């Protein structure tokens, strides 16, 4: 075959790919212009701080003086710090109990709201309003509701002859109290699950009733599998949030002048990180703590994503 014969004929499509018309280029420029504020905000306030914190984690930095590069010393110190192990245990304990309870309570309320009929709009608003409460106010609310002597929770338990525990001073009850007060903000998850419930085909329930399935069987075999994607989303999001628990616990046990002997039970990882960074000005050490937390959350999320393939139903899934 001659060289001249190879140059004839239409140009391969792969060479024409990636070319844009003038109008398409204008659309792309317009789109980039519109999203440029977000891009700049992300680069300046998110990407750069994350990258810089990785550098600071390798330095001795107290905010006042220039960072002094020390390599992996901060990470070695993490391994020897007993409060790291304590705060990680408190955070893990809180997460392992709070997240499943949060999801179950959210699902229970969503199932109730799904039967509300015309009044569902009012109840959706009522359930969501507590979510608007500032976290600091929720921390103060914890002290008022769970006060061992005069709190509302123990008062109600006393009506039934039950002596309530010292929620805010007994180390064994500090984290259960925080778990219970965290249910104050289930409203957003209830709304998400309610929307998912409304999308479950009614034909499935009709067929199940014909086959003699009761409400419980329909819930387990139809409702939960059909909304498993939404449940998994809530599970992931609140697992990440639980590992970063800070505001309520800090307000109740570290920022209110509360007695100090219960503080170790409420010393979550994010609180200890905050103390190192802004109370002791160990910014390099705190940056190392932040990256360790990032890796922990990343690993747990990847595990959850892997496990979800066996339990989460997606529309069109042929498994």
From TrEMBL:
It is found in: Cell membrane. Residues 88-304 form the ABC transmembrane type-1 domain. It comes from the Bacteria. Keywords: Cell membrane, Membrane, Transmembrane, Transmembrane helix, Transport. PROSITE patterns: ABC_TM1. The keyword Membrane applies. One of its GO terms (cellular component) is plasma membrane. One of its GO terms (biological process) is transmembrane transport. The keyword Acyltransferase does not apply. Pfam families: BPD_transp_1. The chain crosses the membrane at residues 30-51, 92-113, 134-157, 177-201, 222-243, 283-303. Gene3D superfamilies: MetI-like (1.10.3720.10). Residues 1-20 are annotated as: Disordered. It is a multi-pass membrane protein. Belongs to the binding-protein-dependent transport system permease family. PANTHER family: ABC TRANSPORTER PERMEASE PROTEIN (PTHR30193), INNER MEMBRANE ABC TRANSPORTER PERMEASE PROTEIN YCJO (PTHR30193:SF37). This is ABC transporter, permease protein 1 (Cluster 1, maltose/g3p/polyamine/iron).
């Amino acid at each position: 075959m001659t060289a001249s014969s190879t140059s004839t004929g239409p140009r391969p499509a792969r060479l024409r790919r990636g070319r844009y018309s003038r109008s398409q280029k204008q659309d792309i420029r317009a789109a980039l212009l519109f999203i440029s504020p977000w891009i700049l905000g992300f680069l300046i306030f998110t990407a750069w701080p994350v990258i810089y914190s990785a550098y600071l984690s390798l330095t001795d930095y107290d905010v006042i003086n220039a960072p002094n590069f020390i390599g992996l010393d901060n990470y070695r110190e993490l391994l020897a710090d007993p409060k790291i192990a304590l705060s990680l245990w408190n955070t893990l304990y809180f997460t392992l109990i709070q997240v499943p309870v949060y999801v179950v309570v959210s699902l229970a309320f969503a199932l109730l709201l799904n039967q509300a009929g015309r009044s569902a709009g009012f109840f959706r608003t009522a359930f969501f309003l507590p979510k608007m409460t500032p976290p600091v106010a929720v921390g103060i609310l914890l002290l008022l509701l769970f006060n061992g002597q005069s709190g509302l929770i123990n008062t109600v338990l006393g009506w039934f002859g039950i002596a309530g525990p010292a929620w805010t001073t007994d180390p064994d009850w500090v984290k259960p109290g925080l778990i219970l007060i965290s249910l104050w903000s289930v409203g957003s998850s209830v709304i998400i699950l309610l929307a998912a419930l409304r999308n479950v085909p009614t034909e499935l329930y009709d067929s199940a009733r014909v086959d003699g399935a009761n409400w419980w069987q329909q819930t387990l075999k139809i409702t939960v599998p059909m909304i498993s994607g939404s449940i998994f989303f809530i599970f992931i999001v609140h697992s990440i949030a639980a590992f970063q628990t800070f505001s309520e616990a800090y307000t109740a046990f570290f920022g209110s002048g509360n007695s100090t002997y219960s503080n170790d039970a409420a010393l979550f990882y994010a609180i200890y990180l905050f103390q190192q960074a802004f109370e002791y000005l160990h910014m390099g050490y705190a940056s190392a703590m932040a990256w360790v937390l990032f890796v922990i959350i990343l690993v747990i999320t990847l595990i959850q994503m892997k496990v979800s393939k066996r339990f989460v139903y997606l529309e069109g899934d042929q498994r």
